[in-house]
Amino acid sequence: MITVAQTTTINSLLEATGSLQLPDGNVTFAGSTPWKVGTLTVVTSVAALRTFTFVAGLEYIMTADFVSTQGGMTSVDRCAYVSGTPGTKALLTLQSGATQDVGFANPTDIDSNNGQKIFTFHGTVTTTFNWTADVLDILAAGATPHVIGG
Fold first, then answer.
1. Three-class secondary structure of residue 76 per DSSP
2. What gap in Å lies between CA 96 and CA 110, rounded to an integer?
3. Where are the beta strands (DSSP E) in 4-130?
4. Coil, strand, or helix at residue 87?
5. Which residues pair with 131 in a beta bridge?
6. 11: left (phi > 0), else alpha (psi -120 to 50), else beta?
7. pTM to 2 decimals?
8. What is the DSSP letter of 89?
9. What is the pLDDT along the chain (150 residues), one digit of tens a residue?
């Protein structure tokens, strides 16, 4: 498992078949190169907004699983996935066949069109491609909405 610091600069491809775990705090990815990992894990223990910032124009790839289980029904209890350049998309790709457990996520300026649709139960999707927070979309796809404590 790889754990990153609050600001992580990557200037050559970080590729791992295992898990990249984001810490219990805000994280900013910087540098000229993205990462490609098996699993991205975001499990926070504190009820507070966590912001994960990605470099605009770079594609970050998850091949096996995306787990983001920040649990909270209010806007201050969520994980925000954002581009470092507002109005310009960062690419966050969950490859076909990978699994996901994403609840209470607020993506902004994220493009996930290169992979499968990402379902975020109780999230707010803003200027983002290939994400949905619509419960009917989640159920129609056969996914199980994330339940607090479940």
1. helix
2. 18
3. 7-9, 14-22, 27-30, 35-42, 50-54, 59-68, 79-83, 90-94, 99-102, 105-108, 110-111, 118-119
4. coil
5. 118
6. alpha
7. 0.88
8. P
9. 677 778 899 999 899 999 998 887 889 999 999 999 999 998 766 667 789 999 999 999 999 999 987 655 566 667 899 999 999 999 999 999 999 988 888 999 999 999 999 988 778 899 999 998 877 676 676 665 554 444
Q: Rounded to whole angstroms, how far apart are CA atoms 45 and 132? A: 24
Contact by Cβ (8 Å): 52, 42: yes
C-alpha count within 13 angstroms, C-beta hemisphere, residue 113: 7
Q: What is the dihedral of CA 97, 110, 80, 16, to 10 degrees?
A: 50
Burial class (CB within 10 angstroms; exposed 0-12, middle 13-18, buried 19+) of 86: exposed
